[in-house]
């Protein structure tokens, strides 16, 4: 019963196959020498070449990169503050405001920010509205990661710093910040990935101006599917994979050396 | 003391201010918009126009009346609930055995298996839906296979893509990790000696699952279900890409009001009804989870 139950194993293998086969097919067909995603014809790099000659797509990638960098910067700053504040002080309103955008359907956030920008600020939608919208929902993710890290730490370090005469600012700069740094970086990477991948909120807050990567992909899927979509998908998967590996490294390194109290066995 | 209060203000003030301006205010605006009149060319009619004596300005609950005036809107809401329920159920059936296996594996293997669940979830959302366009497409190997099998039984060929079936598959695929992770987090905390004790007392494998593991895992089941049910309820991209014209859900209806017909008041009213639906689902799950764990606490 305890070692390898064959039923459980076969169910698990099926689920993993269900999770991975679709993505493997996307990657394989990005190298397929055929316009149709139907059968394997032969190996080619044509779709990648087509992608790098598609100026609209490159512009969209650049815009998405700018948005993701700005949004993850703002979200990391505000999210770290939220995480600290929620952990340290007994706050009632802030936790609700920080965590609700994470939990609710994205479409609601998209719609409300669209209405707000067009009606109240009388503002043309574009990169700025996308950055603000992305920041709003990324704050919660950063706050969750930072707060989890603070919860795993021994409060007595901060007391010790205070007893030794450190001001709140000194305590923060010399003790708290170095300790939570891995969580802050992991939160930044997470917001970056969330922002560059986000479709729903971007779709509502984009306006009509500049091309944005997920919207560009959506149009390609809806209008004319060519293996160019597979090529851009493969590249994006690679990017996310690298980000996740870096984030995982940071988090595990941080938890094994940084904290004074080891994490409870997990 | 004064310094402490200043620190508190400096740390919690900026995020609070940002979220009040860019989350609370927009939500209030959305509520307000649902009580406005639609503009002649889309958008909104102005609240006051002194020169005109037409009643088409100011505030109204027309958008809500309109929702109940045609049964089709209620039907779309019911259908969205049905899809969300079906997706949650399938996710639960697929995720449970996997979560049990992960929870009972050795530590190193466990981390790897969790990572393997999260990894596909980190690839772009549209790409994960697009993958199923390829798999379910009319020229795909799966379509050929299904239709050959159906043909052998003398059943007319079916199209897999642009159907309710494709929508369900896409929904399950996109949301599965949300079910596996909370289930695993819960199952991992179970004390294995409970199962040994049940076995010693003569319980067979089925009884051990049904009387010990399952009741203890209910909090995980409920939080996983909420994490799947709520986003599915508002999802528009999956039906938009994988569904046919008849497979519209609440999300698509809302999207059309803002980016198609531009009836903002109706779109806002729909969004508010979706919010209410989400809140009641969240409230119900919390309540169920509490009463389930309350009764069966160890």
Helix/strand layout:
The complex is a heterodimer of chains A (266) and B (298).
Chain A: H1 6-29, H2 46-52, H3 55-88, H4 93-103, H5 106-120, H6 127-151, H7 156-163, H8 168-197, H9 200-205, H10 213-223, H11 228-258
Helix pairs in contact in A: 1-11, 2-11, 3-6, 3-8, 4-6, 6-8, 7-8, 8-11
Chain B: H1 2-33, H2 62-69, H3 71-104, H4 107-121, H5 125-136, H6 141-152, H7 164-187, H8 192-200, H9 205-234, H10 237-242, H11 250-259, H12 264-295
Helix pairs in contact in B: 2-12, 3-7, 3-9, 4-7, 5-7, 7-9, 8-9, 9-12, 11-12
Describe this structure in words.
Chain A is mostly helical and 266 residues long. Chain A is 76% helix and 0% strand. Chain A is built from 11 helices and no strands. Chain A has helices spanning 6-29, 46-52, 55-88, 93-103, 106-120, 127-151, 156-163, 168-197, 200-205, 213-223, 228-258. The longest helix of chain A is centred in the first third of the chain and has 34 residues, at 55-88. By secondary structure, chain B is an all-alpha fold. Chain B has one domain (69-295): MetI-like fold (Orthogonal Bundle). Chain B has 12 helices and no strands. Chain B has helices at residues 2-33, 62-69, 71-104, 107-121, 125-136, 141-152, 164-187, 192-200, 205-234, 237-242, 250-259, 264-295. Chain B is globular and about 75 Å long. The two termini of chain B are 44 Å apart. The mean pLDDT of chain B is 81. The chains are: A mainly alpha (266), B mainly alpha (298). At the A-B interface, α1, α3, α4, α5 and α6 of A face α1, α3, α4, α5 and α8 of B.
């Amino acid at each position: 019963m305890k070692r390898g139950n064959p039923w459980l194993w076969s169910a698990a293998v099926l689920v993993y196959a269900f999770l991975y086969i679709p993505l493997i097919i996307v990657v394989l067909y990005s190298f397929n020498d055929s316009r149709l995603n139907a059968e394997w014809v032969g190996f080619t790099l044509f779709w990648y070449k087509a992608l790098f000659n598609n100026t609209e797509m490159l512009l969209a990638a650049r815009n998405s990169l700018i948005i993701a960098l700005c949004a993850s910067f703002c979200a990391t700053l505000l999210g770290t503050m939220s995480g600290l504040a929620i952990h340290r002080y007994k706050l009632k309103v802030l936790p609700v405001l920080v965590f609700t955008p994470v939990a609710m359907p994205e479409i609601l956030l998209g719609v409300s920010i669209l209405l707000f920008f067009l009606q109240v600020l009388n503002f043309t939608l574009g990169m700025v509205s996308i950055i603000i919208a992305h920041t709003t929902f990324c704050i919660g993710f950063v706050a969750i990661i930072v707060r989890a890290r603070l919860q795993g730490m021994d409060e007595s370090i901060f007391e010790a710093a205070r007893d030794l005469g450190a001001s709140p600012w000194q305590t923060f700069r010399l003790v708290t910040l170095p300790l939570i740094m891995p969580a802050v970086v992991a939160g930044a990477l997470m917001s970056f990935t969330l922002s560059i991948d986000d479709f729903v909120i971007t779709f509502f807050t984009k306006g009509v101006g500049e091309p944005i990567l997920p919207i560009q992909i959506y149009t390609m899927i809806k209008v004319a599917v060519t293996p160019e979509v597979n090529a851009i998908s493969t590249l994006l998967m690679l990017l996310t994979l690298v980000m996740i590996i870096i984030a995982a490294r940071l988090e595990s390194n941080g938890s094994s050396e940084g904290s004074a109290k080891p994490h409870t066995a997990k | 003391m004064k310094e402490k209060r200043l620190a508190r203000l400096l740390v919690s003030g900026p995020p609070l201010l940002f979220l009040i301006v860019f989350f609370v205010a927009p939500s209030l605006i959305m509520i307000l918009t649902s009580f406005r009149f639609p503009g002649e060319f889309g958008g909104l009619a102005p609240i006051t126009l002194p020169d005109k004596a037409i009643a088409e300005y100011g505030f109204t609950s027309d958008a809500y009346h309109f929702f109940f005036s045609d049964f089709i809107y209620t039907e779309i809401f019911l259908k969205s609930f049905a899809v969300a329920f079906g997706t949650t159920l399938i996710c639960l059936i697929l995720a449970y055995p996997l979560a049990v296996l992960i929870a009972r594996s050795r530590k190193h293997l466990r981390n790897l298996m969790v990572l393997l669940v999260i990894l596909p979830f980190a690839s772009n959302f549209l790409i994960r839906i697009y993958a199923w366009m390829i798999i379910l497409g009319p020229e795909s190997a799966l379509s050929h296979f299904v239709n050959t099998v159906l043909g052998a039984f003398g059943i007319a060929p079916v199209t897999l893509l642009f159907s309710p079936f494709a929508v369900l598959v896409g929904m399950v695929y996109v949301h599965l990790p949300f079910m596996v992770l909370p289930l695993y987090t819960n199952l991992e905390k179970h004390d294995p000696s409970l199962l040994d004790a049940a076995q010693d007392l003569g319980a067979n494998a089925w009884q051990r699952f049904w009387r010990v593991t399952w009741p203890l895992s209910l909090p995980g089941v409920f939080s996983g279900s909420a994490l799947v049910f709520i986003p599915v309820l508002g999802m528009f991209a999956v039906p938009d890409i994988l569904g046919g014209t008849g497979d519209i859900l609440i999300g698509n209806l809302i999207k059309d009001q803002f980016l198609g017909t531009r009836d903002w008041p109706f779109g806002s009213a729909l969004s508010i009804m979706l919010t209410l639906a989400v809140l009641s689902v969240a409230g119900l799950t919390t309540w169920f989870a509490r009463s389930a764990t309350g009764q069966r606490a160890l």
